[in-house]
Amino acid sequence: MASIELRNIRKSFGAVEVIKGVDLEVRKGEFMVFVGPSGCGKSTLLRLISGLEDITSGEMLFDGKLVNALAPSKRGIAMVFQSYALYPHMTVYENMAFGLTLEKGKGKEEIRQRVERAADMLQIRQYLDRLPKQLSGGQRQRVAIGRAITRDPKVFLFDEPLSNLDAALRVATRIEIAKLHEEMNNVTMIYVTHDQVEAMTLADRICVLRDGLVEQVGTPMELYEHPNSVFVAGFIGSPKMNFISGDKASALGAHTLGIRGEHINIVPEGSGWSGKVIHTENLGADSYVYLEMGTEEPVVVRLDGANEYKSGDVVHIAPMQDKIHLFDAAGKPMH
Amino acid sequence: MATETMAPPVAAAGPRIKSELMQQRVRAARWFLLPMLIALAVVAGWPLLRSIYFSFTDASLNNLYGAEWVGFGNYLRWSVLESGTVRYRGLLVDANWWNAVWNTVRFAFWSVLWETVLGMIVALVLNAEFKGRGIVRAAILIPWAIPTIVSARMWSWMLNDQFGILNDLGMRLGLLSQKVAWTATAETAMTAVLVVDIWKTTPFMALLILAGLQMIPKDIYEAAEIDGVHPIKQFFKITLPLVRPALMVAIIFRVLDALRIFDLIYVLTPNSAATKTMSVLARENLFDFDNFAYGSAQATLLFLIIAIFTIVYIWLGKVNFDGGSR
């Protein structure tokens, strides 16, 4: 269990500054997700926390103690890599036990118990004698998670652990990670992803990063309901929030008007805004209608169940008044 | 039921189509292999068979085609003297030959050992990231790129007892009390040859090992760093096991090369019993002493020794020439 504090953290690679002054506090036992588009610095920030990269300037504190110069193995962390990073020549058991065998004062029996306990948690006990190459991607990722668990870390770091898995496995492993967080509720977890669905479903709090700076930190629902910039509003939620500028926005005194697809109603002809259907997607439980309304990107309307609209149909819509987000010219919210 | 009645024709059609495709592929493969097989037969197979044949004859340089079959006479023959003692003669009891075998094996062992150790160190350095790595990589290959004859001549001047730079430096620095004939003295000749060979071939070894090192994913070293694995332990527990397939192939290349060493010794220490190897001795008998059949027998035995070495090594080391599957 550890709280982590980042004070004005900066990181440069040569002349390129990747992290441009990040202040952040991760609370004890919290599941914090770093999310952002590729190149925003989220993985670099995680590697700075792990100690695999040196901090250029600023202070990193674990439980109030400065760890800037502390080796990764001394920070009480465990890390799960996107590429699993398993030792290819060692069996699953050896992979999980390797770190422990190097610690002083650990008996063989204790190591075996810890490995088996972690293997049971992840249901990989029957694979302990196999080599990584004999396992599927999902099984390998479990072994990597198991290896991290056996270290009994204070801080658990995940670097896009689901990116190499197929869609079905991604959902299953995501649920397992959520379960893991419940079981190990005194372990602080930091999870990096570019997938906002993973962020929304796993996080206690989300940290949205953009261009090496923190854009917003908050619970998933805070970010969903009160994004404090156009960037966060567009990044969190699927389908993406619709942004409408021009007359419709200035009628409400704003530069940009944001409204999510699920907060738009279809209304009878003669009221609301009208748009031409250019595409529809039926997903069964819900469906999306894409409308051409003179905006930069088509306006997406999310409807419950299937819909029967065809391209070229004219549809009238109205946003739910209390769900409208207004932004000024700088992309900041107006209240 | 429908699937059951449908099943047999499908099953019958499967292998037939497959075998047609297979036949076509096998035919194509044979045609592609043919040029190589012909080339090998002409440049390797035929000469090999000829020299094995000559080793069972009494052939000499000026009477190759009138050679007569003498069986194993070149290898071992004996005569009973009047006194009743049996006298053995032939290659298998030739002290010069066994001296050459010993020299060759000794040379191969020490040169490959040092080249492996130094090559590994160089490869580890070149595998790290630093400024100017490209230039260093190119520069380190220079000794290997120089033709052996040229570098051997160069070294023989450097090692020269009167005008060599090594003796000059040694004298000036007070390391030597008198000038040493490095290549001519029996005690130092082998060391001199070894030093030059190691200097020349370490880059090749480094290059082969470097290729193996670059196959190892970088992220497992990060995992090891988080696991708290000491760098030296990382080398023995992670790097060495993972580079082993490439290392084994590199070592066998070098052993085969070292066992047939000729040019370096021929130039650097001509006619020295301390360094004379199997190849040097065989050439001497074949062309200088006009013992063509005897030289052929030596060449044949050299071939057998290398073949046995290779087979034992591959068998013991479980070498995978496909680069090892991970």
Explain how this protein is built.
The complex is a heterodimer of chains A (335) and B (326). The longest helix of chain A has 17 residues, at 167-183. Chain A folds into two domains: 4-234, Rossmann fold (3-Layer(aba) Sandwich); 240-327, Nucleic acid-binding proteins (OB fold (Dihydrolipoamide Acetyltransferase, E2P)). Chain A has helices at 42-50, 92-102, 108-122, 137-150, 167-183, 196-202, 220-225, 230-235, 247-250, and strands at 4-13, 16-26, 31-35, 57-62, 65-66, 77-80, 155-159, 188-193, 205-210, 213-218, 242-245, 256-259, 264-266, 273-282, 286-292, 299-304, 314-319, 325-327. The two termini of chain A are 38 Å apart. Chain A has 335 residues and is α+β, with helices and mostly antiparallel strands. In chain A, the strands form four sheets. A six-stranded mixed beta sheet of chain A has the order 6-7-8-3-9-10, with helices on both faces. The model of chain A has no long low-confidence stretch (mean pLDDT 92). In chain A, α2 packs parallel to α4 and α3 packs across α4. Chain B is mainly alpha-helical. Chain B has a domain at 95-317: MetI-like fold. Helix content of chain B is 69%, strand content 2%. Chain B is built from twelve helices and two strands, in the order αββααααααααααα. In chain B, α2 packs antiparallel against α9, α9 (231-259) runs antiparallel to α12 and α11 (278-288) packs antiparallel against α12 (292-317). The longest helix of chain B is centred in the first third of the chain and has 53 residues, at 2-54. Chain B starts with a helix and ends in a 9-residue tail after the last helix. Residues 1-13 of chain B have low confidence and may be disordered.
Properties at a glance:
heterodimer; A: 335 residues; alpha+beta; Rossmann fold; OB fold (Dihydrolipoamide Acetyltransferase, E2P); 2 domains; 6-stranded mixed β-sheet; B: 326 residues; mainly alpha; MetI-like fold; two-stranded antiparallel ribbon; 69% helix; globular; disordered N terminus
